[in-house]
Amino acid sequence: MNRHLSFESQQISLFEPLLTLQSAAVAPIFVESTHTARVNPLLDTDAFSEIALSGSAQQCLQLIAPILRQLSDDQKDRWLTLISPPQQITAQWLRGAGLNRERILVLRPSGLQSSQELACEALRLGCSHTVISWFNPLPRAAQARLVNAARVGMAHSLNIRQPYTI
Prior knowledge:
Blueprint: E1 4-7, E2 10-13, E3 30-35, H1 36-39, E4 48-54, H2 57-72, E5 79-83, H3 91-96, E6 104-107, H4 115-125, E7 128-133, H5 140-153, E8 156-161
Parallel strand pairs: 4-8, 5-6, 5-7, 7-8
Antiparallel strand pairs: 1-2, 3-4
């Protein structure tokens, strides 16, 4: 599975070892996409990707919008699932960003369940082609649990890491 995303005139691969984007009109924004194989060769890169963002909240939202838009149009028979997205990612923001709302599930944990447990369950069930989480930091053991759940459900786990909550 090699998923490429278009970002204006550039091709972005979620599976490239390192990706840095800069916006000339505003303060620099850095996006880093890491292979789990570079961290731990036992983990499956088709099951997990991570994007690290830094910049203002608005810049980060502008960067992830085209990624989410393309993923929301992917594989019509399965969902794009967002686990505990930041507060700024509302139904109104999703509509305004042009996402296919008919193919997106937004899930938040209830009771004693953690966001990580919810992400693992969503991956394991196999009803989603991609489950996006916002864990920062994401310890290796937690990453390994996400990878294992993604393998079981034949899904992909994408973690968006930010130094702060947008």
